[in-house]
Design brief:
Layout lengths: L13 E6 L13 H18 L11 E11 L8 E9 L5 E10 L5 E13 L4 E3 L3 H13 L1
Antiparallel strand pairs: 1-3, 2-5, 3-4, 4-5, 5-6
Length: 146
């Protein structure tokens, strides 16, 4: 089977730190894949909060994750502080991609590269909605400033 490839952006607009908790450790003694998805979820929530958004309220719309890709680079262990860098890019009519770079804060070793694809969703009408212009414009503007 062919390996999945993920081309990472060169610039990230947000950074946060998260600890690896004992509940994040799997039977192999390192950060579990399910826990890593939880870490990027927490980072996405913090990222959106910086812009006064939430996953259920971005200009009146919510988010639905359509796909996720994680490329593992190194192990993470209980007690590690993980730096998660986040950015938004690859907009289309209904959604965009969130990219995440996870690194060990102390050693700078990259632990994982990840991407989650999302679409905007109107939960009252139960249907996919177009990306709010103000959300798209915010990140197109930030990308131009780099």
């Amino acid at each position: 089977m062919a390996r999945v490839k993920l081309e990472m952006p060169k610039h990230f607009t947000f950074s946060t730190e998260l600890p690896v908790r004992i509940s994040d450790i799997n039977y192999g003694g390192h950060l579990g894949n399910d826990a890593l998805l939880g870490l990027i979820h927490e980072a996405r929530v913090r990222f959106l909060k910086q812009y006064h958004y939430g996953e259920l309220d971005i200009e009146g719309l919510g988010l639905v994750m359509t796909d996720s890709v994680i490329i593992y680079k190194a192990e993470g262990f209980h007690g590690d502080q993980i730096q998660v860098d986040v950015t938004v890019t690859d907009f289309n009519k209904y959604g965009c991609d969130f990219f995440y770079l996870l690194s060990n804060k102390e050693t700078a070793v990259e632990i994982a590269h990840a991407k989650t694809g999302i679409v905007f969703f109107d939960y009252q009408q139960r249907k996919v909605a177009q990306v709010p212009e103000s959300f798209r414009d915010l990140f197109i503007k930030e990308a131009a400033e780099v």
